[in-house]
Amino acid sequence: MKYFTIKDFSKSTGLPPSKLRFYDKKELLQPSTRLNNGYRVYTVDQIHLAKMIDSLRQADIAIEEIKRYIEGNEQEKVEILVSWKKELDKKMEVLLAAKKYVGGIQVESSHSLLLSKWEKEKYFVWQRFEAEKRPHPFQKFFQQAVERLESQGIYCSEQVYVKTEKITNNKIIGEIGFEIDPSIHIVENTNIRFERISPTLFAVLRDCRADDEYLCFSYIQMVIRYGFQPVGNKLERYSNIYADRFDYLLPLVK
After folding, report:
1. pTM, whole model, 2 decimals?
2. Do 63 and 149 belong together in one domain?
3. Is 175 found in the same domain as 236?
4. Closest to 178 (Cα-Cα) out of 165, 163, 197, 161
């Protein structure tokens, strides 16, 4: 069998010796053997593996993920490739959203959307309420929603979220939500439900007045300007149950 020194293997793969030593240190691509003098030597069969490892690194795949792929069986490799593709698809969606965001910024305007990402999965408990159609329709239910949860031994975040579901001539139906610890057990019913929200990229309009009757129109116009397409219901986020201002959160990428 033909062996390559690290210098010759570097020429055959196009990878510098420093990178080969790094891959060796990370146990991604270890020499086939070492000579008595301690020199690393590689085989012809390792040329393709070396190029593939480096290609995956160029595709921004983490070292531990590459190692998991190399050590996996055929079925595991198929599953890993599928998961990588999903992650790359999501990264492309995030980049597209970022491109739209940059393209929608107006230098002369002090009001613009912002981007915000929930890096980790979040857990929410939601309660449904029906309110009169008026500015800040659900605020009078905030305290009631907290007390209802506390009566069940459920303690939640100080921030309050509102999700509007349906608007009729004189009524608004929506949900009031709070972030909770995932270990808390929720007894769901017609008015209370649990939701797990995956890491999400949002477009955010900050510090909105709850009594601003033109807010919805302004918000829609701004979203159109940026060319965003929501992937779910927009959320209103209040800092606490007494707040009269909120942040509008529009989900862009989940």
Report:
1. 0.77
2. no
3. yes
4. 161
